[in-house]
Amino acid sequence: MFRRLPEIETALNAAGHTVSFTIDGRPASARAGDSVTAALLANGVTACRTTPVSGAARGPYCMMGVCFDCLVTIDGTGNRQGCQVRVAPGMAVETQNGKREVER
Amino acid sequence: MSAPKFDFDIAVVGSGPAGLAAAALAASKGASVVLLDEQAEPGGQIYRAVTETPVRDRKVLGPDYWHGAELLGPLRDSGAVHWPGTIVWSVARPREDVADGHRPIQIGLSRNGAASMLTVRHVILATGALERPFPIPGWTLPGVLGAGAAQVLLKTSGLVPSGATVMAGSGPLLWLLAWQYLQAGVRIDAILDTTPKENWRAALPLLPGFLRSPYLGKGMKLMLEVRRKLTVIGNVTALRAEGAIGGDSALKSVVYTRNGAEHRLPADTLLLHHGVVPNLNLANATGCAQRWDEQQRCWRPTTDEWGATSVEGVSLAGDGAGIGGARAAAEAGRLAALDALHRLGRIGREQRDQLAVPHRAALDRALTGRAFLDTLYTPAEAFRAPADDTIVCRCEEITAGAVREAVRLGCSGPNQAKSFLRCGMGPCQGRLCGPTVTEVIAAERGVSPADVGYYRLRPPVKPITLAELAALPKTDADIDAVFKH
Amino acid sequence: MTATASPKPDVIVIGGGLHGCSAALHLSMRGVRVLVLEKDHVARHASGVNAGGVRQLGRHVAEVPLSVASMALWHGIRDLVDDDCGFESHGQIKVAESEAELATSHARVAELNALGFTHEEVVGRDELRSLVPAIADHCVGALVSRGDGAAIPFRTTFAFRRKAIALGARFQEGGTVTRLSRKNGLWTVETADGARFEAPVVVNAAGAWADRIAAQVGEPVPLEVIAPMLMITARVAPFIKPVVGATGRTLSFKQFPNGTVLIGGGLLGRAVRDENRTELDFSQVSVNARTVWDLFPCMRGATIVRAWAGIEARMPDQIPVIGPSGTEPDLYHSFGFSAHGFQLGPIVGRITADLITGGSTDLPIAPFRVGRFAA
C-alpha cells in the first residue's frame, strides 16, 4: 500500500495538476507525470494482473522496466509495462488476467 | 559496396551518470552524439526524475541525489541529441567483411510506438544496474517490491508506503531509502538486516580503504542515524513473505529467523534489497564477452581500462560494466567517450591519454573503499541460492528445486536450464533469475559460477510488437527474396 | 588421455544432434556398442533450437518415402524413446493466398498421387477456416497434411540421447574432432582436447561441421552454413492448432500448448560457425513479421520476446547426404538436412543402422548419395 506525501498531495490539488483516467472502468485520478503503475498504487491497486502460468496475482516489483510484473492493458493494448508509460487524461487502464487473448 | 549512411558518430544508451557524462563530453569535442534513453527525463535510476521530482524538500532525497542535476547543464550545452522515451532492443555488432574504414553498427530501437534502425560508428552502453534478485518464498506476492522500486516511486511520484511496512536485506541502498523515509516522516515498522555476521571478518581488513573514501563515509553516518531512530533487527538468516492463509492475493506478513528462532511481523509492504548487479542484457545480446566477478558475485562484461568490450565499436561505462556507483560511473563515461573520440579519429592517442588523466584519478578516488562494501554486503548463500520451494524465475514460475532437479538430469548451466525448464524464457529475459540460476546450478554441481556460464541472451532485449517489427523499413530486394515465384 | 575405462566401441558417431543421437539409438537397439562424440553439448545447435515442425507436407519428392516412414515412427515416438517428445499431431497447412497458388497446390497433389502418396490434399476456403479460424480473409484455400504436427526439439534430442544411453551408448561431450584416419580396418578419431578413440565404423552426423569431417577422407562436399531465424511471442490464449506455412512466401507459424507462438520459416541471419554464434538480420526478421501481419491480422499487437538463429548445413540441391562414403569403407554420412531434418531424425538413424548392421536399407536413399556433387 502506498500513499502520496501529504505536502505533495496538497500542492497537487491546489495547482490542479491531476489526471483523470479509469481503472477497470472505474474513475480514478493521479498526478500528471505519474507512471501508470504509480497511478495504480496511488489508487490502492497493488495487484495489477494474474500470471499466464499459474494464475497467481502479481503487482509491480522493480519500477524500472526490467521485471515485467506490472503488465496491464492500456487503451485496449495488452502486455504494456505500466511503469514505463505515463498516465494520460482519459486513459483506460485494465488489470490483466492470465494469457492475453490475441487481438488484445 | 556503397558507403553506409551514418545517422550519428556515437550513440550512448542510457542517461544515468555514465551516459550523461559520456554524451556530454563526446559531443563537446565535436562528435555527433545521440543519447538514447527509456525514461521521459534524464537521470537514470540513481538520479531518476531529478528535473521534475515532486519531492521539492531537498533534505528528503539528500545531496547525493541532487548532485545529479549538475550533469544536465553540460549535456544541454554539448549539442548532444537526447531522445527520451526510446527503447533500444538490439545492437548488432559490425560485420567483419565490410569495406575499408566503414564498420556500421545497427541499433534497433522503438520510439513513439514505431521501430526503426539507426546506423552509427560507435556505441557506448551505459545501461546501469538493477537490483540483485532477492528470491525468498513469497517474493512474487503483490506488496513485495524492491527497495529500489520504492525509491523510484518516491522520486518520481512522491509515493511512500502506508500501512505496516518492513524493509529487509542489506547494502547501501537499503539504508539510504530508510534514511530518506525518515526525512519524509514515513513510518517503517522494522528493518530486517540480513548482512551475514561472518562477512565482517572478511571485510575488516578492507576497512581502512573504505574510511579513506571521500564519498562513502557519508553512508556510514546515515546508517547510524537510521539505526538510532528505527527498529533494526540484525542477524536475520531466513526470510519469507506470506499472503492470507490459503490465499496468494497479497502480502499479509513477513516471517524471519534470527538466532534460530522464527518470528512473524504483520506487513502490507515488504521492501527487499541486497545490492545491485550490472544490467548486462544488451551487452550480452550484442555478443560482448563477460566474466564472473567473484568479489561482486555477478557476471560483468569484460572491458579494458577505457570500457572497450570484446566487440569492435562497442564500449561500456558505469555500473553496467561492474558496480562502482554514480561518481565512478560518470568518470567511466568520460573515459569511454575519450576512447571513442580517439577511435573515430577525432583526437590523437596522446591527447586522449592526457585528457583522461583527471578522470582516471577521479575514478580511482570514487572506487576507493568499494571492496569493503562488496565484501561486507555479499548476500548469504541462502539468499543467493535459495531453498527448493522458492520461485527463482518469476516469469515462468520455476522453483530452485526444479532447477536442482534439472541439474541432476544433466542440465549443466543456465543455457540448458532454458531448454530443460523454460527458466529465463519469459519476457524479463533472465534479468530477475539469471544471477540466482547461476548460483543454484554452480552450488548443485559443486563448481564455480564461472564454469556454468550465463544465459546467451537474444534480441529484442525488450519486447516489441509484431506490428512494429513488420513496419521496419525493408528494401525491395528483401521482399523479393522471400517470394519463391 | 585415452578412453580405456570402457570397452572399445563398434561405431563412433560424430555429432550429438538429433541425427547422431538417432543413429546411436538405433544401433544400440541392435546391440552395437556406440560412442557419440559431440564438440559442444548434445542439441547445442540446430537440433536444440529449430522450429520443431514434424512435416511431410511439401517435401522434395526424393524425401517423401523417408518422410512417410519417419512419420510412422513419430506417431509411436513414446514406444521408441520412452518420452512423447512434446509431439502433437494437428496437421500442417500451407496456405494459398491466390487462385494461382491454389493451382500449384492441386498440381502438387496430382504429382504425389501419381507416385502413390496420398498424405497431402487440397482444401478450399471454408475448410481452411474451420482448420484455422484466425486466417486472413484473402486466403483462398490450402494444401494440408493431416498427420503432420510438431514436437519440442531439445526435449526430443535429449530423449533419443537418454534412451541410447539406457541401451549402452556412451556420449563424450566438449571435444571437437580434429583428425580422422583409418589404418588396418580401424578408424582413429582424435579430438581437440587430446583424446583418441578407435572403432571399426564411423558415422558423420556433424551437421554444419560435417564438411570438415568429409574433407578428412578426401571427400569435399559443397556444404553451406546457414542460420535460419526464429522468433517467439509472449503467451497468448490458445487460438490455433495446426502448423501453418504459406505457398508463396517463407513462413512457419505455430502455437505451443503453453501459449507462445513461434514464427520462422527459414529466413536467414548470418552464421559464424567457428565462434558457435549467429547474427540476426532484422530486415529479414521484419519480412517474416510482415508475412504474419498479412496472414494473421489478430497477431499484429502480439509482443515478440526473443529472436534467434541456429547453425545448420544446407546442400546446393536442398536435400541431405545419407549413406556410405564414396572414398572410404566403413564411413557413413548423415548430414546436410538443409533446415528440414528434424522430422527425418527417427528414420534416418534407422537407415544408418540398417546400412551398418545389414549393408542395405529398404528405403530409397540413392538420391542422397554423397557422390552426386562430384564434377
Automatic annotation (TrEMBL), chain A:
- SUPFAM superfamilies, per the entry: 2Fe-2S ferredoxin-like
Q: Where is the 2Fe-2S ferredoxin-type domain?
A: 17-99
Keyword annotations for this protein, in alphabetical order, are: Oxidoreductase
| Any GO molecular function | iron-sulfur cluster binding
- Keyword Metal-binding recorded: no
Q: In its UniProt entry, what is this protein called?
A: (2Fe-2S)-binding protein
- Classification lineage: Bacteria, Pseudomonadati, Pseudomonadota, Alphaproteobacteria, Rhodospirillales
Automatic annotation (TrEMBL), chain B:
Q: Which CDD domains match?
A: GlpA-like_Fer2_BFD-like
Q: Where is the signal peptide?
A: none
UniProt xrefs under InterPro entries: BFD-like_2Fe2S-bd_dom, BFD-like_2Fe2S-bd_dom_sf, FAD/NAD-bd_sf, FAD/NAD-binding_dom, Metab_Enz_Cyan_OpOx_G3PDH, Opine_Oxase_asu/HCN_bsu
Q: Does the keyword Oxidoreductase apply?
A: yes
One Pfam entry for this protein is: Fer2_BFD
Which keywords label this protein? Oxidoreductase
FAD/NAD(P)-binding domain mapped to chain residues: 8-333
BFD-like [2Fe-2S]-binding domain ranges (all copies):
391-442
The protein's GO terms of the molecular function aspect are: oxidoreductase activity
Q: Which SUPFAM superfamilies match?
A: FAD/NAD(P)-binding domain (SSF51905)
Protein's UniProt name: NAD(P)-binding protein
Organism annotation: Azospirillum lipoferum
TrEMBL record, chain C:
Task: Identify the residues that the record assigns to the FAD dependent oxidoreductase domain, covering every copy.
Answer: 10-355
Query: Which segments of the protein form a coiled coil according to its record?
Result: none
**Pfam families reported for this sequence:** DAO (PF01266)
Assigned keywords, A-Z: Oxidoreductase
Q: Does the keyword Oxidoreductase apply?
A: yes
Query: Signal peptide span per the entry?
Result: none
The record's listing under InterPro entries reads:
FAD-dep_OxRdtase (IPR006076), FAD/NAD-bd_sf (IPR036188)
List the GO cellular component terms. Answer: cytoplasm
An example of a GO molecular function for this protein is: oxidoreductase activity
Protein's name in the database: FAD-binding oxidoreductase
User: What is the source species?
Assistant: Azospirillum lipoferum
